[in-house]
Amino acid sequence: MADARTPILRLANVEKRYGDTLILDRLSLEVPAGQRLAIIGPSGSGKSTILRLIKGLEPFQAGAIEVAGEPLRPPRSASWFARRPAARSHMVGMVFQHFNLFPHMTALGNVAEALARVLGLTRRDAEARARDLLAQVGLGGKEASYPRELSGGQQQRVAIARALAMRPQVMLFDEVTSALDPELVGEVLGVIRTLSRESGMTMLLVTHEMGFAREIADRVLFMEKGRIVEDAAPSQLFTAPQSERTRAFLRAVLER
Ligand code: ADP
Predict the structure, then answer these.
(1) Distance between CA 215 and CA 41 in Å, rounded?
(2) Distance of CA 85 to the CA centre of its chain
(3) How far is 129 from 135, CA to CA, in rounded Å?
(4) Cα Rg of the chain, angstroms
(5) Which of 18, 167, 208, 246 is surrounded by the most beta carbons within 10 Å?
(6) Mutation test of ligand 1: which of 49, 96, 172 has the most ligand atoms closer than 8 Å to its C-beta?
(7) pLDDT in tens, 204-229
(8) Under a CB-based contact definition with an 8 Å cutoff, are residues 219 and 233 in contact?
(9) What are the tens digits of pLDDT across the range 97-107?
(10) Which is the closest atom of ligand 1 to the Cα of 174?
């Protein structure tokens, strides 16, 4: 069982391969509850893979992942999801780059669906809670809109509300602004900023927004080739990186 000293998230020597290609190389990481961890690094370094494994979307070949002291077993088959204890699967929420909303459901429906179907709330209670969540992400008044009627920034805010609906202990944000037009990035970052200030929720953010990472994170990981190259406070990592690789990466992205 978890106690106050148990990290909310623990990865120990996690190895992930696609075929013969090593994607995560015995990666270990402990995240205390309430920490906001930004993960940065070049494309293909394994950042999204870490999040997908923590969410239980993919198997891994070796090592262990624990959420609140409970081991996560890699899915062996599609039916694994059906058998997975409900409480466990809801501990981790995830928001994706491409929103992944149900196109045939309204904003309200997208948020209420899992509350009714998975948590078993009555349709009325699910919709009341969904309404509150949409208001929380600044979308009061958009309940009846379908995804195609919303901007990318609004769709992403619906996706955040949907992930929050399950009251997860850990939220994973996977490059959630990368698919947005530049003028819509701010509204999505604003919602995450408010959430981080007000909720104390543990967050892992894979991001290319260095300014945002620096502002919001308590801790930053720089990844390369499936390994953590540097793990430091943002004040350290962004101003006095220890590794030449981190320095070169930051120079390249900040000059862009
Ligand atoms: P990042 O988030 O750092 O850009 P990813 O975690 O998405 O990197 O990907 C890490 C590596 O895994 C990349 O080389 C990518 O090509 C590879 N990869 C990701 N998904 C798959 C897949 N389904 N099959 C094969 N290789 C994959």
Answers:
(1) 17
(2) 21
(3) 10
(4) 18
(5) 246
(6) 49
(7) 999 999 999 999 999 999 999 999 99
(8) yes
(9) 999 999 999 99
(10) 2
Cα–Cα distance for residue pair 172/167, rounded to 1 Å: 13
* pLDDT band, very low/low/confident/very high, at 58 (cuts 50, 70, 90): confident
- Would the pTM of this model clear 0.90, i.e. be above it? yes
Q: Cβ(49) to ligand 1 under 6 A? A: yes
Separation of alpha carbons 255 and 190, rounded Å: 24
pLDDT at position 4: 60
Report which ligand 1 atom has the smallest distance to the Cα of 49.
6
- Contact status, residue 237 vs residue 220, Cβ threshold 8 Å: yes
**Contact at 8 Å (CB) between 166 and 112?**
no
Spatial distance between the Cα atoms of 77 and 63, rounded to a whole number of angstroms: 19
For ligand 1, say whether the CB of 185 is within 6 Å of any of its atoms.
no
Q: Which of 187, 180, 208, 191 is nearest to 39 (CA)?
A: 208
Phi-psi region of 141 (alpha: psi -120 to 50; beta: other; left: phi over 0): left
Residue extents of the structural domains in the chain: 7-75+85-254
Tokens of 45: 């370094």
What are 125's two structure tokens? Answer: 């209670």
* C-beta of 58 in contact with ligand 1 (< 6 A): no
> Ligand 1 pocket, 48 CB below 6 A?
yes
Q: Which atom of ligand 1 is nearest to the CA of 223?
A: 3
Q: Mean pLDDT, to the nearest integer, of 21-25? A: 96
How confident is the model at residue 83, as a pLDDT?
52
Class of domain 7-75+85-254 (CATH, top level): alpha beta
Phi, psi of 126 (to 5 degrees): -60, -45
79 lines ligand 1 (CB under 6 A): no
